[in-house]
């Protein structure tokens, strides 16, 4: 079966005064119908730019999308569609929930107006049918006294409620794909949990495929079928949720997991933050972008070339030259002599 969405060789850069910011660097992935894919990574790793490119919401310029990039949705390349063809897909077939609902809700229109507008446009409903459907949607996302709230403005809702309204708007036209970009970051933990529960329920009830973007591996646990880890505009590890948590194979993912509290850990494990900062996206290093921060780095080999994603077990790929696992002891100091296993390069002692 063809996947619902297939992203091939996606490369996005931004022209800035300081130079070309290479935000997304050859990203490839797919999403099946009804599947939930988690995309995690630190701030600046290219998660939002990837989703905005899929939605064709990046202004070009300053954004430059490589001409070989493809976003195949239901068999057609969205990057090649005319603007009016894309408008029929955006909001209807593919909907998006943003981190801050206030940026996507119009403050001067009632939420009833905002929900019914797209129902009339995409679903060709008349006023009465659209209002009825809007109330149903608000009920579905858990807004109390939904019928009385259609005339309210966004500021009359709390942050969590606004996020629910956004979700109601996003699912109003039965999208095949819902892109949720950090939908809970601005909310407190209780509300965060409720919103995630809501997304889970909608997925079960409506069968919508979800691309859930977050910088928090804890959030995607238990929610996603597959997880993709991004670093410096690349996918550096991808696997089903279970193996990714149980057996992470890219040092960056291992670092991410060590830096979040885990309910399943028995002892009082110390949380270990990842040292250092992501690379400058204008002058990316020639080698592994994580190398300067990697506890397992081997000088020279890791700086020589960017490691490709390679299969480490079935359905599990990681971008590291070495077979690192959670159990691999962290070297005290980088070894003076290393033998690379992956490409069989022998390196002489440094200095
Ligand atoms: N309009 C723009 N002009 C220049 N650079 C940009 C622009 N938009 C994004 N970038 C750069 O692209 C890179 C990826 O940004 P992106 O917003 O995708 O990160 P992210 O993974 O979503 O981070 P966060 O978790 O903070 O939302 C960053 O280095 C960012 O500075
Ligand atoms: Mg973002």
Topology:
Layout (H helix, E strand, L loop, with lengths): L4 E12 L2 E13 L4 E5 L6 H8 L8 E3 L4 E4 L2 E2 L5 H7 L4 E4 L3 H4 L6 H13 L3 H14 L5 H4 L9 H13 L5 E5 L7 H18 L2 E6 L2 H4 L5 E6 L2 E7 H6 L4 H8 L42 H4 L5 E4 L2 E3 L33
Parallel strand pairs: 3-9, 3-10, 7-8, 8-9
Antiparallel strand pairs: 1-2, 1-4, 1-5, 5-6, 10-11, 11-13, 12-13
The structure holds adenosine-5'-triphosphate and magnesium ion.
Could you please describe the fold and organization of this structure?
The chain is α/β, with parallel strands linked by helices. The protein has two domains: 220 residues, P-loop containing nucleotide triphosphate hydrolases (Rossmann fold), CATH 3.40.50; 104 residues, no CATH class. 29% of the residues lie in helices and 21% in strands. It is built from twelve helices and 13 strands. The strands form two sheets. The chain has an eight-stranded mixed sheet with strand order 7-8-9-3-10-11-13-12, sandwiched between helices. Strands 1, 2, 4, 5 and 6 form a five-stranded antiparallel sheet that branches. The C terminus is likely disordered. Bound molecules: adenosine-5'-triphosphate and magnesium ion.
């Amino acid at each position: 079966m063809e996947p619902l969405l297939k992203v091939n060789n996606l490369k996005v850069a931004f022209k800035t005064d300081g130079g070309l910011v290479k935000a997304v660097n050859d990203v490839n992935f797919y999403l099946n119908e009804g599947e939930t894919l988690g995309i995690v990574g630190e701030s600046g790793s290219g998660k939002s730019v990837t989703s905005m490119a899929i939605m064709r919401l990046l202004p070009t310029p300053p954004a430059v999308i490589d001409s070989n990039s493809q976003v195949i949705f239901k068999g057609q390349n969205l990057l090649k569609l005319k603007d009016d063809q894309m408008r029929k897909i955006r909001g209807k077939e593919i909907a998006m929930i943003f981190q801050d609902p206030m940026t996507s809700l119009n403050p001067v229109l009632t939420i009833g107006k905002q929900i019914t507008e797209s129902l009339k446009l995409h679903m060709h409903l008349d006023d009465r049918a659209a209002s009825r459907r809007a109330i149903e949607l608000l009920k579905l996302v858990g807004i109390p006294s939904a019928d009385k709230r259609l005339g309210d403005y966004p500021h009359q809702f709390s942050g969590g409620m606004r996020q629910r309204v956004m979700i109601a708007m996003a699912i109003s036209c039965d999208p095949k794909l819902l892109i949720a970009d950090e939908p809970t970051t601005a909310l407190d933990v209780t509300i965060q949990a409720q919103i995630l529960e809501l997304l889970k329920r909608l997925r079960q009830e409506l069968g919508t495929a979800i691309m859930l973007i977050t910088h928090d591996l804890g959030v995607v646990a238990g929610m996603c079928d597959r997880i993709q880890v991004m670093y410096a505009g690349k996918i550096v590890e991808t696997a089903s949720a279970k193996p990714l948590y149980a057996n992470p194979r890219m040092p960056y993912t291992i670092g991410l997991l060590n830096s979040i509290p885990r309910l399943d850990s028995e002892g009082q494990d110390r949380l270990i933050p990842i040292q250092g900062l992501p690379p400058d996206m204008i002058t990316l290093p020639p080698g592994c972008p994580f190398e300067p921060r990697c506890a397992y780095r081997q000088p020279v080999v890791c700086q020589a070339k960017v490691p490709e994603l390679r299969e480490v077990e079935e359905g599990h790929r990681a971008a590291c030259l070495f077979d690192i696992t959670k159990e691999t002891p962290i070297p005290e100091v980088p070894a003076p002599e290393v033998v690379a296993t992956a490409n069989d390069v022998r390196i002489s002692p440094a200095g």
